[in-house]
Specification:
Helix content: 40-55%
Distance between the termini: 53 Å
Strand order of the largest sheet: 1-8-3-6
Structural class: alpha+beta
Shape: globular
Strand content: 15-25%
Number of strands: 11
Radius of gyration: 19 Å
Length: 243
């Protein structure tokens, strides 16, 4: 992947892609400008493979629009969904830092666009801007916490509680920790992918979701869920205490 003049867009558009509260969120404007100058825009159709496990890790992707799927394929050919990345999210940052090959496959779930940041430029920017190094450290801590959260849910909780915890975690990832009383969530997963994330069969996940709908904890609106956050928090607390 190489950058050309037509791939570059306005500075305002590049800065907007860097401001959501993920890796670069909260950095000062001059640091964001450095990252924006080093980045190149890309657009991808749906179902485009951005990279595969084992590929050279020489760039990261900062998602501006659309959604990406991160997965592994087992020896038997079964796809294991590891997660999805939406606007403001980043992918490829681990290989960018340690120089190791890619650890997973990444594919667009829909038409998407984003910024490409090359490894050499990223490492140079980290040396020039100490804030960027601190932001990366916070981001990696967040990834570790998210992994621990997912492992804990699968190992320790029943399916209903896993689903509730997943919804709350997804809401916090999208909207921050201070959730409103009713929050809208676009999961961006089909039923099979959601089942894979929760470590259960598709029919069981469908039944668990339908039960939450019947209780009024969530309301389905086309491709979105309207969540009663207070009820979800109460259900999560009850599930974690064994109630």
């Amino acid at each position: 992947m190489t950058g050309t003049a037509q791939d570059r867009r306005g500075a305002r558009e590049s800065l907007a892609a860097l401001r959501p509260p993920t890796l670069f969120g909260g950095l000062e404007a001059d640091v964001l400008e450095v990252v924006a100058r080093l980045s190149v825009w890309r657009d991808w159709p749906a179902e485009t493979t951005l990279f595969q496990r084992g590929d050279e890790g020489n760039h990261m992707v900062i998602v501006a629009t659309g959604r990406l799927r991160m997965s592994l394929v087992s020896a038997a050919g079964r796809e294991i969904l590891l997660g999805t990345i939406g606007p403001g999210g980043v992918i490829g940052e681990l290989a960018l830092i340690d120089g190791q090959p890619r650890s997973a496959d990444v594919t667009t779930m829909e038409r998407s666009s984003g910024l490409i940041l090359w490894r050499d430029g990223f490492l140079s920017a980290m040396q020039m801007e100490p804030q960027l190094g601190l932001a990366v450290s916070r981001h990696l801590c967040g990834l570790l916490r998210a992994t621990n959260h997912q492992m804990e849910s699968i190992a320790l909780h029943d399916l209903r509680t896993r689903l509730v915890r997943f919804l709350l975690f997804a809401l916090e990832q999208a909207q921050g920790p201070d959730l409103p009383a009713r929050a809208e969530l676009r999961i961006g997963l089909n039923q099979t992918e959601l089942a894979n994330m929760l470590g259960a069969s598709r029919p069981k996940v469908n039944r668990a979701l339908q039960a939450l709908i019947e209780e009024g904890a969530v309301t389905r609106m086309e491709d979105r869920l309207i969540c009663d956050t207070a009820m979800l928090l109460a259900l999560a607390e009850a599930g974690e205490s064994g109630g």
